[in-house]
Amino acid sequence: MRKAVKRQRTILGIVLREIKRKLVTAELECSASFQHLNTLLERAQRIHQQQPKDKNKLYALHAPEVEC
After folding, report:
1. Averages of pLDDT over each 10 residues, the chain, 68 residues
2. Containing domain of residue 38, as a range?
3. CB-based contacts of 34: which residues, under 8 Å, 6+ apart?
4. Domain tally for the chain?
């Protein structure tokens, strides 16, 4: 399970960096979708940085109020 979680975090990091590179063009096209994308990016960044022993973890992108 640790191997799978580590691989998922690696993939998430790669995707986050790629999206941040392409964010400039998305900002120019549509501001409403840019705000939604920015919210999702903040949540994904939070998931990428959280550690197993951290408090106030984020468990779901679509429902940040979910607790374990």
Report:
1. 92 91 73 80 90 86 82
2. 2-49
3. 23, 26, 27
4. 1
